[in-house]
Amino acid sequence: MARILVVEDEDNIATALDFLLSRDGHSHRRLATGAGAVTEIRASHPDLVLLDVMLPDVSGYQIVQDVRADPALNDVRVLLMTARGSVVERRKGLALGADGFIAKPFELSELRAELSRLLEG
């Protein structure tokens, strides 16, 4: 069972993620904004962060950059999620240190495959 932090402002997506993660037996928490996300990641040290790129207060790109700047968080995996799934967005996310990138809306099977890949790696 993995410990997963979901940082997602859209309730409908957070609900779908909650359902999937619960069904797969993962322990998870949700933050609806990016404010305090890095502090929460430091405090709870999750195995994986499902991180929305477009948050109301701070971008997911900034959060992944801050996480990667902290050597104590090197083992925390980050999966970026965005409705703007262009090649440019993907490259930017991966260049900043994300471990994976998934475009919304995503198929549950696609998300499940990415979760498996990141949690086994």
Automatic annotation (TrEMBL):
<protein>
    <submittedName>
        <fullName>Response regulator receiver protein</fullName>
    </submittedName>
</protein>
<dbReference type="InterPro" id="IPR050595">
    <property type="entry name" value="Bact_response_regulator"/>
</dbReference>
<feature type="domain" description="Response regulatory">
    <location>
        <begin position="3"/>
        <end position="119"/>
    </location>
</feature>
<dbReference type="GO" id="GO:0000160">
    <property type="term" value="P:phosphorelay signal transduction system"/>
</dbReference>
<dbReference type="Pfam" id="PF00072">
    <property type="entry name" value="Response_reg"/>
</dbReference>
<dbReference type="InterPro" id="IPR001789">
    <property type="entry name" value="Sig_transdc_resp-reg_receiver"/>
</dbReference>
<dbReference type="InterPro" id="IPR011006">
    <property type="entry name" value="CheY-like_superfamily"/>
</dbReference>
<feature type="modified residue" description="4-aspartylphosphate">
    <location>
        <position position="52"/>
    </location>
</feature>
<keyword id="KW-0597">Phosphoprotein</keyword>
